[in-house]
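Notebook, student rotation project (T.W.).
Task set for the rotation: take a protein with a known small-molecule partner, predict the structure of the complex, and write up what can be learned from the model alone. Partner molecule chosen: zinc ion. Sequence and SMILES entered below by T.W., checked by me.
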Amino acid sequence: MFFDTHAHYDDERFDNDRDAVLKSLPEAGIGAVVNPGCTADSSRAAIALAERYDIVYAAVGLHPENCAGADEADFAALEALAAHPKAVAIGEIGLDYYWEENPPRAFQKEVMARQMALAEQLDLPVVIHDRDAHGDCMDMVRAFPGVRGEFHCYSGSVEDARILLDRGWYLGFGGALTFKNARKAPEVAAYAPLDRLLLETDSPYLAPVPFRGKRNDSRYLPYVAERIAAIKGICAEEAERITWENALRFFALEGTR
Ligand SMILES: [Zn+2]
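Predicted structure of the complex:
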């Protein structure tokens, strides 16, 4: 079975067929999905999906692109949602310096730090979004040595990957790994130990080749597993089994599935 560690089924692009897609996942070999939140409302929606579907778990968090105006009420809401039995991580949190219209960097950092502190307090792993902000994200990792987590859709260097791996962090890879122009990601995937890799789709975004540009969903995850298997020189079944076990360990779900 496959574990999709990152899919946004609360996204409006699933409004017309969300139930049909989610119901079809088990027969497609998808055994579990973590749906990260991007705002307090989207975190609430993630929890609602987790309550409704056995295979869905939630992460709760404020995404850097969506954190404008984040206030105490939002942090209190996250803390309350994180107490839910199917809330398995704080995410997706992080820094995004790519889009100019994103909230100011200092504010993004403040919001991320609050959520790193919350993860530490609740002893939950974090799911990090890092776009064009590698240096500041690494500083945040160093500032919270008690926090463990994952960089989703990892796009950093092998050097930064080594620092993260040494600190017990995991790296998530998705459709971007299958793109023809992918350079750094395959290099890092080759370097990282197999037991620290997590598979993800980031649905509805980043559909793997040969579906690039289409709406993504977890049923395309096997294409990512195949790419990982090819990079590691193992069979697809082994990549599937090992990444499944990695995700159970990472989200502390061992013995529950
Ligand atoms: Zn995401």
